[in-house]
Specification:
This protein has 714 residues and is α+β, with helices and mostly antiparallel strands. It is built from 23 helices and 17 strands. Bound molecules: adenosine-5'-diphosphate and magnesium ion. Adenosine-5'-diphosphate binds next to strand 9 and strand 14.
């Protein structure tokens, strides 16, 4: 369907509230609007009674449970603020196990006498809501008849106002638990993991001589990739509508990749969309910073500045929602799928992760003083140990059906988890491990056990884009997340496994210190032992290469290629032990997640297979038959052979796919493995024939918009 007929939208038509945006002089600082719709600390200070404000802040700083007596006062202030901003309703917003965001709206207003209404919102309503838990997947924790679930206010993630052309809504970030207290969401384990990491890190810092730090926070700075396509193409592609990705489509001719895209200027309509999205995000307090074109045509990236893991994770959900909403105002659809177009780069989400103290120091920053460096090496060694021990779980934390087209496909990191330390840091660890410096290492490294460490110069510019887990100067960058993913679980995993490793190293340090060892020497010995035991996971070469796959296997690293291969790691002994020990998720809670994720994979694979059959049978096959008829009419029999062969191939593939799609009821992993090995495999054959047909069928007979139409927005 080569009808290049992109919407000819003019600037005035672009945005439903384009006028409002145009009227705002964004060069004026007062129109920056950062946090304008957030019940922020500043708003709380202004609106809460002094003692209530102080108590609330103390709660937030200390990570202590909230004093329920504060709730009424906070609810009253929040309501007044929301009403002034035009809110009529409020919602407890939460993240069920689907990874998306859920909300149920309640009106502030209740009928009062004489036909009037009264706006009410109590502390109880702020603290707790009661949505129907059985409407969300619980992996067997809740049966339909045990519907009761609770949402609980999370005061550490600020409430905000969501605007709609027809009104506004007060959104209260909440956690979601079952009546029996099991976590049914992504936030509860994330908060628990942050507590766990804080406890372990503070304990270790005490041993390392830090008497001040009361709390350690983990931070996340995500980088989000996405595609934009014209809305009309989206509606002409049943596969995009049903599955978020194209199930058919021949690669565009070579050369298009060189379209100056990556370094090129951003098309005006796209930039207008970005600016409006960013304005919306600023109002919500999301600190967006960077925007640019990405490698593939029609692919872009947006990156906020890092925040605490919990707030950053909530903001990431809002960011994805905002991109999707605002795109529609510009005649675009924003595709967050990991692989919308086969043969074209997919979309990931880099997860920059670090740990910082309440005094503001970053524990993964090498720093200028020997003491800072001792801390740094200790925590860095703990991260290496954690990643090595739980490599399978980390892989599982980024598993979904979309990712199976990306990880290991020469564009994203492989399915093998390894760490890139960078030349400088690797040299330091190697020197510590061998007790000898190489010729380029400063002389004072030579007797690390007995001398103080010099400053560690870290080259922030040293990059290895192929590594799934890279040290980047003052943080680790977990690069294997998929673009559609919530940040919550991967960060829950990072925090939990880091807490465990920090405790392990801290116990060893304590033993050495009480055995009379001196401070830098004791830490250096521990760092050395841990690094030597775990260095198999460190790799600085090309992760895309064949040789690495062979070498990784020799090193005994896991290579879990597909989602069904990876998910059992969620229930491995080492996962259950760590998650139970740190009270992040019980075995039952882990089992529920495993069940939900396995089922989601199977359901999505099944939808893809059904959709693939429907499109190939009712749209593509008829196009092939018409082409044959056309050739017959023209009587050019020399042209017939190739088309007939491809049509036969397609018909054969369709018959196999039809059989594969007709299967008895199955459950759990059996179902997922069946879907992968039978349905997705049969789909691949159907696609191969269809994509070849696309190249020989008359353009005006082809029923789907082609890649080259969809991918070149102007
Ligand atoms: P790139 O990886 O594309 O080179 P940058 O180096 O600019 O990008 O940074 C990427 C991300 O790292 C940004 O979102 C930034 O906010 C985040 N970041 C920086 N410091 C930290 C930190 N201490 N914790 C978590 N994320 C951080
Ligand atoms: Mg990055």
């Amino acid at each position: 369907m080569s009808r290049i007929r992109q919407q000819n939208v003019t600037a005035a038509q672009w945005s439903s509230n384009g006028e409002a945006l145009g009227a705002l002089d964004l060069t004026q600082p007062e129109n920056n609007l950062f946090g304008a719709n957030v019940f922020s600390v500043a708003v709380q200070r202004e609106r809460l009674p002094g003692d209530v404000f102080e108590k609330l802040q103390a709660t937030l700083r200390g990570g202590e449970p909230l004093d329920a007596s504060l709730a009424d006062a906070v609810a009253e202030a929040m309501k007044e603020w929301a009403l002034e901003k035009g809110a009529t309703h409020y919602t407890h917003m939460f993240q069920p196990l689907t990874g998306s965001t859920a909300e149920k709206h309640d009106s502030f207003f209740e009928p009062a006498g004489e036909g009037g209404t009264l706006a009410g919102f109590s502390g109880k309503e702020l603290i707790q809501g009661e949505p129907d838990a059985s409407s969300f997947p619980t992996g067997g924790i809740r049966a339909t008849f045990e519907a009761r679930g609770y949402t609980a206010w999370d005061p550490t993630s600020p409430a905000f106002i969501l605007e709609n052309p027809n009104g506004t809504l007060l959104c209260i970030p909440t956690a979601f638990a079952s009546w029996t207290g099991e976590a049914l969401d992504a936030k509860i384990p994330l908060l628990r993991s942050m507590d766990a990491l804080s406890r372990s890190a503070v304990k270790a810092l005490r041993l390392l001589g830090d008497e001040e730090t009361q709390r350690v926070f983990t931070t996340v700075g995500p980088e989000q990739e996405y595609f934009l396509i014209d809305e009309q193409y989206f509606y002409e592609r049943p596969d995009l509508i049903a599955t978020g990705r194209t199930l058919f489509g021949a690669k565009p001719p070579k050369g298009h990749e060189l379209d100056d895209h990556y370094f090129g200027s951003i098309p005006e309509r796209v930039l207008a969309f970005m600016m409006e999205s960013e304005l919306e995000m600023r109002k919500l307090g999301i600190p967006v910073k960077t925007r640019h074109n990405e490698v593939a045509p029609a692919q872009y990236e947006i990156a906020p500045i890092f925040e605490s893991s919990n707030v950053g994770s909530d903001h990431q959900q809002l960011l994805m929602q905002t991109l999707e909403n605002v795109a529609r105002r510009y005649g675009f659809v924003c595709l967050l799928h990991e692989k919308p177009f086969a043969g074209v780069n997919g979309s990931g989400k880099h997860n920059n992760w670090s740990m910082g103290t309440d005094a503001g120091s970053n524990l993964l920053n090498p720093g200028d003083t020997p003491a800072d460096n001792i801390h740094f090496l200790f925590f860095c060694a703990a991260v290496i140990q954690a990643v090595n021990k739980h490599q399978g779980l980390l892989r599982a934390s980024v598993a979904n059906i979309g990712q199976d087209h990306r990880l290991g496909a020469n564009e994203a990191p492989p399915a093998i988890i390894s760490i890139f330390l960078g030349a400088e840091l690797e040299k330091v660890f190697e020197a510590i491990a061998s007790g000898e410096g190489d010729p380029n290492t400063p002389a004072s490294f030579l007797h690390l056990g007995t001398t103080v460490l010099p400053p560690l110069p870290m080259d922030g510019g040293d990059r290895n884009r192929t590594s799934p887990f890279a040290f980047t100067g003052n943080k680790f960058e977990f690069r294997a997340l998929g673009s559609s993913m919530s940040l919550a679980f991967p960060n829950t995993v990072l925090n939990t496994i880091a807490a465990e490793a920090i405790d392990d190293l801290a116990d060893k340090l304590e033993a050495k210190l009480s055995g009379g060892a001196g401070m830098p020497e004791a830490v250096m010995e521990i760092v050395k032992d841990s690094y030597l035991a775990n260095k198999a996971v460190c790799f600085s070469g090309d992760n895309y290469s064949e040789e690495w796959h062979a070498e990784a296997e020799q090193r005994g690293l896991k290579n879990l290629k597909t989602t069904p291969d990876a998910l059992p790691e969620v229930l491995s002994d080492s996962t259950v032990a760590a998650f139970e020990e740190y009270n992040v998720l019980s075995k039952r809670e882990l089992e529920s997640r495993y069940e939900v994720w396995v089922e989601q994979y199977a359901i999505r694979a099944n939808i893809e297979a059904e959709e693939s059959y429907a499109i190939a049978q009712t749209m593509i096959l008829p196009a092939g038959l018409r082409q044959l008829a056309l050739i017959g009419e023209a009587g050019v029999s020399a042209l017939e052979g190739e088309v007939r062969e491809l049509v036969d191939e397609l018909v054969g593939g369709l018959s196999t796919l039809k059989d594969a799609n007709d299967y008895p009821d199955m459950e759990g992993m059996d179902w997922a493995v069946y879907a992968r090995d039978r349905q997705l495999a049969a789909m691949a054959d159907v696609r191969e024939a269809a994509d070849k047909l696309e190249k020989v069928v008359a353009d005006d007979l082809w029923p789907l918009p082609k890649y080259e139409e969809m991918l070149f927005i102007k």
